[in-house]
Amino acid sequence: MTQPAGTTQPPAPPPAGALPAWAAELITLYESGAATQFILHGNVADSMLLPLADGPRLGSLTDFLARILLPRFDVVIGYDLAAGVRIEKGGEIVGQWPTFKQTQQLPRDPRAAIEWISTFLRYTANMRRLGKPASQVAVFIRSASLVAPGLRGAFNYDLAALALQVRDWAADPLIAESPVATFLITDNLSDLHPLIVNNPRAARLEVPLPSEKDLRDAFGVLAAAYPAALAPFAGRLDVPAGAMAGSTMHAVESMLKTREHKRQPISDPDLIELKKQIIERESAGLIDFLQPDRTLDMLLGQEKVKEWLRQDIALWKQGDLKAMPMGYLFCGPVGTGKTYMVECLAGEAGVPVVKLKNFRDRWVGSTEANLETIFRLLHALRRCYVFIDEADQALGKRTADSGDSGVGGRVYSMMAEEMSNTRNRGKIVWILASSRPDLIEVDLKRPGRVDVKIPLLPTTTAEESFTLIRGLCAKRGVPVEPGAFESLKALMPRLLTPGAAEAIAVKVYRSTRTVPGTTVEAALRDVLDDYQHPVPLDVMRAQIELAVREATDAEFVPPEFRPST
């Protein structure tokens, strides 16, 4: 990384092609003079490949900054709460600074440390203005959100003063026009003080999770160190690299260390389970990562819906994304199998399902930080469905709710922006599920975020109910003969959901196992004699009406439920 425009140009940095995209952009911004302060966020705690002259190796982000981006800098100063101020490079230059000569101390306290750094930056800038040799200085603040955290509760004057000093490193012309670069490293932008994050003179650069190419290169570097673990993939390291997309470098290396220690080669089937374990652990319990083993063939009925979904999957597999939906809405009464439909759809497409869990947190800013973590993971996965159950509750509201400190409004804003990001088309498909789609904000279910809205409805005839019950009984090894329909027809409930039919099948199975001599037909008759709808019929009909009104295609709606014209 060279000096800003208008200054002496030292030797060029590594070729842009050898650097990750965020680093290449950083160099461009700095060398052009467009920015001197950089907020690095995202996957900042992970290992990354260092393109060193003697061969690539893994190192930390600060290793990358010091060894790859900052080798031409005369002075490199680091700071974090644990170690305080540290002179990473150029100690002899700092030693000539009159203020340091007087104190011979490096501060630890955040306010004192930031003031110390600010004073040194102004000193070097003044030296330059006086025409004296000026050092090229870089500063990086590790875990910057702990040094200048986002606002939590009452206003804090000391914290605001500290944040303003950090902001001035980019805003003060005396410093900004000098050969200075400052780096603030944080996991999530929402954790950092808004005075810093919203500074228009600071560049915000996301360090992403490793891509498939990054992982393939990493496996190439690690293969020699872990020959037993990677033995099955000799000559085909692209296989584990593709399977591990969405994992961190650190998690992959830990996995290899464990397997190598046990002398256990990693097999192809292992990769799926290992990836699931890694991602769920790295996401700190914010998601469930599912690799479904069901297909649409296992879904009873819904033929028009299955036909449409299979067409979408075919387009997706062919890479023809012009008609690929950004998202789906599955709506219908409670128990109509919305979650099951998602698992069948994902299994048919051969992609995983990321199910968002309770990402809301009672602490101000924590919910937004959780969403940033989730989005970072989603961007790293090559293709996935993102499933949000009870979307009417999970996605927040456009208007802020005074009872939740505005969290719902911020969640709504973040989700709306992410769901409409066209760069995600063909990578992330959003699936919302709700029995109350009327409570989902209209903007969140508009085309461009949710393009296809599919009602999942209960049975309309005795034949449909019998077919559904019979299929679920067969799965439990208690087959119902087709000829039994006529004798049971009068007992068959209408408006039967898959959830209710599942409960009937379980009772039939139980009766045949606990009451000697009971036939399947007799057990089913007894269950139907006592059957009561688990959801009141007036509630069921209201939810059916809501789902029908949402449908984007009339063919998704059985004739019995279509409104009369």
Throw out a few tags for this protein.
565 residues; alpha/beta; Rossmann fold; 4 domains; 6-stranded mixed beta sheet; 24 helices; 14 strands; disordered N terminus
Poorly predicted regions: 3-11
- Span between N and C termini? 69 Å
Q: Which assembly state applies to the chains in this document?
A: single chain
Tell me the structural class: alpha/beta
CATH superfamily of the largest domain: P-loop containing nucleotide triphosphate hydrolases
- What percentage of residues falls in helices of 4 or more residues? 40-55%
How many helical stretches?
A: 24
CATH architecture of the largest domain: 3-Layer(aba) Sandwich
How many beta-strand segments?
14
Principal-axis shape equals elongated
Reported for the largest beta sheet, the result is: 6 strands, mixed
Strand order of the largest sheet: 5-4-6-7-1-8
Q: What do these coordinates show?
A:
- The chain is an alpha/beta fold.
- The chain has four domains: 16-207, 3-Layer(aba) Sandwich (Rossmann fold), CATH 3.40.50.300; 212-278; 290-455, P-loop containing nucleotide triphosphate hydrolases (Rossmann fold), CATH 3.40.50; 462-529.
- It is built from 24 helices and 14 strands.
- It has a six-stranded mixed β-sheet, sandwiched between helices. Strands 9-11-12-13-10-14 form a six-stranded mixed β-sheet, sandwiched between helices.
- Helix 17 (366-380) runs parallel beside helix 19 (407-419), helix 20 (462-475) packs across helix 22 and helix 22 packs across helix 23 (520-529).
- The protein is elongated, with a radius of gyration of 30 Å.
- The protein starts with 20 loop residues before the first helix and ends in a 15-residue tail after the last helix.
